[in-house]
TrEMBL record:
UniProt-recorded name of the protein: Inner membrane protein YpjD
Organism, as annotated: Vibrio ostreae
One GO-annotated biological process of the protein: cytochrome complex assembly
Pfam families, per database record: Cytochrom_C_asm
Keywords in alphabetical order: Membrane, Transmembrane, Transmembrane helix
InterPro entries attached to this UniProt entry: Cyt_c_assembly, YpjD/HemX
Transmembrane portions of the chain: 34-55, 62-84, 90-111, 123-145, 176-198, 210-228, 240-258
Gene Ontology molecular-function annotations: heme binding
């Protein structure tokens, strides 16, 4: 049954992508309602699949691929809701592609990492902060890459300014720093709950998560300070945003990738 749900969700994500791409390559309008309907159905099946994969009998199966699929779901949900307010057409194909890939991997490359969050509400609070901070800052990294791409295309005078499906450069920049500010506040919450709710956060075997997350927090804090106090923009902003997201990826998935995928 899970295989069928995964296939349907992946097809619906791909249908959303197929509806968006023609408008990015030309001047044709994008049918936002059609994209939203197919994406909403994909998210519905994705959520159904996650409930089957994670709510594993007794406890919750938070394997690396299940968590990656959950993060993809959160990002796709947020971006889909925002599509009517903001022109996200350049980012949505990337986001939906990762969702389709991650849910397929979680289905056909199953892993097991059983936890019992119902017995430890403090741990659930910490994990919630971690999931939403990583999802938000991953969106920030995508915005930063979009900003760099738009800036490059405009400098090359590719005529993006007249494509109605592409967002204005300054609007993307404003949204980018709002997202990073929110993400960094959530990351602050992740670190604080980790210190107070998880006694062995910096114990051997776990220290890299806390250290890398703290370094990422410093990177994002410097980026926000540099923008609001020194007027940083352009390529420097992109490098900081991508570096922060990379550090968090290594913190959250690095050791588990080795244990659950390479050493299986």
């Amino acid at each position: 049954m899970d295989n069928l749900i995964a296939i349907v969700a992946a097809i619906l994500y791909l249908l959303s992508i197929a509806t968006i791409v023609p408008g990015l390559s030309g001047q044709t309008g994008i049918k936002a309602k059609a994209v939203f309907v197919s994406a909403a159905l994909a998210l519905l099946f994705h959520a159904w699949l996650l409930s089957d994969l994670i709510l594993h009998g007794s406890g919750q199966n938070l394997s690396m691929l299940n968590v990656a699929s959950l993060i993809s779901f959160i990002i796709s949900l947020v971006m889909s809701i925002a599509m009517f307010k903001t022109r996200l057409w350049f980012l949505l194909p990337v986001v939906y592609s990762f969702s389709a890939i991650n849910l397929s991997a979680a289905t056909w490359l199953p892993g097991t990492f059983i936890t019992h969050l119902e017995n430890d509400p403090k741990l659930m609070v910490h994990i919630s902060f971690a999931l939403f901070s990583y999802s938000t800052l991953s969106i920030g990294a995508l915005y930063a890459l979009q900003l760099a791409w738009l800036d490059y295309k405009l400098k090359k005078k590719k005529g993006l300014s007249i494509n109605p499906n592409m967002p204005p450069l300054l609007m993307v920049e404003r949204q980018l720093f709002k997202i990073i500010l929110i993400g960094n506040l959530l990351l602050t919450g992740t670190l604080i709950t980790g210190i107070f709710f998880i006694g062995d956060m910096f114990a051997q075997g776990k220290a890299h998560k806390g250290v890398l997350s703290f370094i990422a927090w410093i990177v994002y804090s410097i980026l926000l300070w540099g923008h609001y106090q020194r007027g940083w923009r352009g390529r420097k902003v992109t490098w900081f945003a991508v570096a922060g997201a990379t550090l968090l990826t290594l913190a959250y998935f690095g050791s588990r990738f080795v244990r659950e995928i390479i050493l299986r």
